[in-house]
User: What shape does this take?
Amino acid sequence: MLGKRARKTVVVAIGLAAAFSLTACNGDGDDGAAPAASSEGQSAGSSNATGSSGSGSKGPTGSSGSGSSGSGSSGSSAGQGAGDAKAGTCRTDALQVEAADNTTGKKEGVVTVSFKNTGGDCVVNGFAGADLKTADGSSISLDRNGEATSRDVIKTGELAAFNIYFPVNDSGGSGVRPTKIVVTPPNETKSVTVSWPAGSLPASDSPDGTKLEISPVHKVG
Assistant: This one.
């Protein structure tokens, strides 16, 4: 099962073919994450999320969308020092969200969702909420994998990211075609919708056990 298999390093392709290394920093932390809520947003270009807070194609570049109300829970964790302790949770309105296809294998696909901090220093800790919207209007929830979370401080202009792992459709049929990803940053309630940048999913369960799941959000670099 892929959920228990450690993936220590992945390549993130963002913007003008820039390459980054996604690594866990600063040890384990809480894994509280806000489940994504359904929304339809813009699917082209890069922009900060906009919207109101609530209670609850393959290529190297992704796209940002509009924010919408969502629902979820918040988490907390101990500070790393006097300066870091003052940093609050990274808020959706201060994050530029993109998605890029980083699939290299024939069986397992990888889509990387990145958060660029456009505000002041902030903290990411745990799993994001992520749902896939399909061409027929259905919604697919994603399971968390078994990787450890960490409390990472993201400075202005820096990136955090997580991976969506999915079985590649090699059946020869059309399969299930996602069109959007509804993303809620960790410990936030406001979601952003971005375009799905990869191919289709198998119409039935993958015979080799490959499954849809997400990794925790970690600082890039």
The radius of gyration is 16 Å. Residues 2-219 form one domain. Residues 167 and 207 are 10 Å apart (CA to CA).
